[in-house]
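Troubleshooting entry. Yesterday's outputs looked truncated, so today I'm pasting the complete records for two proteins to confirm everything comes through intact. If either block looks cut off, that's the bug. Protein one:
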Amino acid sequence: MRLGSLALCLLATFALSTTSYAQGLGGPSSVQAELEPGDGLTDPQFRSDFPRNTAPGYFAWADKLAKDHGLRFNFDYLALGQSSNADIGAGNASGGIARFYGSWQATETGSLTFKIENRHAYGAVAPQFLGFDGGAVSITGTAFNDNGTMLTNLFWTQRAADGAWSVQVGQIDVTDFVDIYGLVSPYTGFQNLAFNTNPTINAPNPGLGIAGGVKLGGNFYMTGSIADANADPSSPDLDVFSDGNLFKSLEIGYTSDFGRLYFDNIHLTLWHSDAANDGSRAEDYGAAFSAAWFIDNKWMPFLRAGVSKGTAALYEKSVSGGVGFYMRNTDMAGIGLNWAQANGLPGNQATLEAFYRFSISPGLQITPSIQYIKNPLLNPAQSSITVLGLRARAVF
């Protein structure tokens, strides 16, 4: 797609104001959501005020900057360690992510969102690859790779004054808004990709793109995106205008209220990814369905499924189900079960993940987890693999 065609697509796409504080597309892993403590829940309660009580002057300055100039930002650091009983591979992995992200409300209806991060492994294997290292077709530590410094977000959001539509243009991460639900974030929820963005979707790395949506009455919405399918956030460029290799998505969904978009949500997502001009990636396309509902602001059962041509996405077919449970102090527990088939491999693979997130303060979370992978597709000699994990997140 050349520049002229891309401009026409810009005029045809819109973004959706998803929560009372968000001003564009965004799920639990988006900058808008992560700037709010307590998963966007009202009146969150915590055991501690760390780290605000360690540097009250700094946080008072940051609060004043947000109030007077509309600039909100966070620094955070995440660490993940995992250990596997696989009879091949390294058997353990660890890594971290350092991030600086925020949003500047430049005008009444326009804002600039940014995120810079550094992803690194502590040892030979990053958690994202521990599953493959042990013979499973499984990403056991989503986002915890060793990609180095990346520009993940740098986009402008323009929205209607009444929130009926908005547009995002710039460096975007489609996994922030494509096929989202309340437990999608690998930073605060499930760690296995089977329970994050649907593993049958060949989502590109963050890169240049356009995303948008529009409210269709009081409860329905439609969103769409066009993004660089060859994106490399460690070396951002404008090559999409010349090579035309694009990822496209279209989603239509239902929610109980637009302030609860990723809490109460049922949607269907269609997507297509062009083949790479250099032959490194084949064309891929598919569809995904998701249904999740927040009951009594405590229980979130979910059912998610997807199917793809299967040439480039992790799975050709996938079905996931489970439940999340929010408790006082915004602690959260989750359990999920996934069944999947991978392209070109016989048989199927099942994954179970359970975790408990201790929310000690708005700026400190500790999450132990266990993953059980039955019939690892790349290691048929072993009937199952168990992965133990411990994730920590500190926000400043």
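Protein two, checking that the full record survives here as well:
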Amino acid sequence: MTLEGAPDPRTRTQAAPDGARAGGARRRPGRSREGRFAFWLVLPTLIVLAGVIGYPVVRAVVRSLYDDPVGRTPEFIGLGNYAEAVVGSGAEDFWAALSTTMFFTGTTVVLELVIGMAMALVMNRAFRGRSIVRAVVLVPWAIPTAVCAVLWRWTFDANGIVNHLIGQQVLWTGSEWPAKWAIVFADTWKTAPFIALLVLAGLQTISQEIYEAARVDGAGPVRRFVSITLPLVRPAIVVAVLFRMLDVLRIYDLPQIFTHGANDTRTLSMLVVEESIGNLKAGMGSALSTLTFLIVFLVALVYIRVLGARVLNGRDGGAA
């Protein structure tokens, strides 16, 4: 029994949610205005990207659906160029180029990650002349790739310094595996500092108090690296590896200058340029470029879904 005129408790319990909903409704216009303002800020960038990236991609996809005639207008053939590239007369070149590209990607990324991690660990330590060491380490990364390729081609020449140091006469660009490993070595030398730079940025976010607590608990250097350094720097490693994978999957200039694609060193990007410019087959070249884009996109998507998103969202199961 309630007194007459007393507020009903049920009315009070329902008033708060109604008020909250009203407050939420009042806040929505502000959020929508912020969203519209953000959209107008981003719109110029989207327009530029659509013109610089979107139009060429769409144009290449459309051109890949036409043949490559001589002396007549191109005719629509649908997926004919793709079928010819994957299972037809161009299949051998395509799969060989894909295999070479994947070899370069796998070997260079692994080597660069190991060497870059070691370089970052050294540069992260406090010692006299650390700033000079950091500057010197980044010099290879600052050198243009074309210049780097010419320098290392001279170094791996039959009369170059590499053969002089090993005391053997190796034709590094004259056969398949020496040429491939020479390219891997040159690419690793150039871009390992890039990995080191990103990993070093991740290392500098780790508090030294964590290491001090681990030392007090009796953890050795290896245990501290495995249990503290590696889990906490893993997001930086994920980003660095992703960038390098996307870069190596599109590699062109280094093997082009080194071997011109000879001795099974031709990559997908080199095959695209060869078909489009060398053989004057715009349709086939567009199909190959589209396939290259799809391969790069799928590799990045699988990498992010399997490892990247899990780590970057904090679900990697690292040290607590």
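Both blocks look complete. Sanity check on protein two: Residues 202 and 236 are 6 Å apart (CA to CA).
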